[in-house]
Amino acid sequence: MHTVSIFGVGLIGGSFALALKQAGFQGKIIGVSSPATIAAAHAAGAIDDALPAEQAAALADLIYLAQPISRILDTLPRLDPWVRPEALVTDAGSTKARIVARASETLLRCQFLGGHPLAGKEHRGVEHADPDLFKGRRYVLTPRQERDLRSPAALDFIEWLHRIGAHTLLTTPGQHDAIVAYTSHLPQLTATALAACLAAEFAGELPPVWGPALLDSTRLALSPFDIWRDILETNQAAIDSALASYISHLQRMRERLALADMRQYFEEGAKIAARIRDSG
To answer: Is the domain covering 3-171 a CATH 3.40.50.450 domain?
Structure first.
């Protein structure tokens, strides 16, 4: 892997570029983004060059799509005439089924390997890029078939993921989307709903009494809707199922609020919370 073209040099794309450089990558990293983002990426030291999409794709051994999901879906059909047959195209989209299906339909001249780094921040933009963003984090890969992982380009990419400190995890696009509806999308919506509830209850003012628990539980409410709009649109059925399950649990908790069996909720919740922290 000598040339990497990153489409969307924001938080994730910029962090991937900085992580590669920190891990010893000696090749060229090309950015494909808006002029303002390119200028910021140059200032951050994330990229070595900037080119139009067609030229960047034609030169790349690895094309890394770190755009919003809707932009990834728009970009994939355009890539096929430009790419080299031995190149690998991957993405960092937060949902996988729609993206992998689009790649299967439109990207025929080279290999595609779906990906999702389970890393991020509340703030986007290359100004917040961090070379350590992926260290110790799970990085999901969704190959269409097992042999996709054995191509030279895929083996090289996976080796670099390990070099930047990520822990790769394999699953199918459908399984990925069903799981992250509970483990990523539901926490976001829960935090947003709590913050919206507070805003309505206190007429947009700060509550007079609050502590660290409120800071912890509303942190994700800082996330911008521009990112989440595409996630909600491309994983609607799974998110609806997760919300229905969560609302059902909340309703049962409400019905048992004064009863002794509330203890069961606390004990079961504490067990899984402890296991999540122990595994991290």
So the answer is: no
Q: What's the angle, vertex CA 219, arms to CA 174 and CA 235, rounded to 5?
A: 20
pLDDT, tens only, 200-215: 999 888 899 989 999 9
| Cα–Cα distance for residue pair 88/111, rounded to 1 Å | 5
Predicted TM-score (pTM) of this structure = 0.90
- Domain spans in the chain, listed from the N-terminal domain onward: 3-171, 175-279
Sheet containing strand 88-91, strands side by side: 49-50, 28-32, 3-7, 62-65, 88-91, 111-117, 138-142, 167-170
Taking only the tens place, the pLDDT of each residue in 124-161 is 889 989 999 999 999 999 998 889 999 999 999 999 99
Tokens of 59: 């030169």
- Which DSSP category does 68 fall into? -
Beta bridge partners of 91: 65
Q: Is 83 exposed, middle or buried (0-12, 13-18, 19+ CB in 10 A)?
A: buried
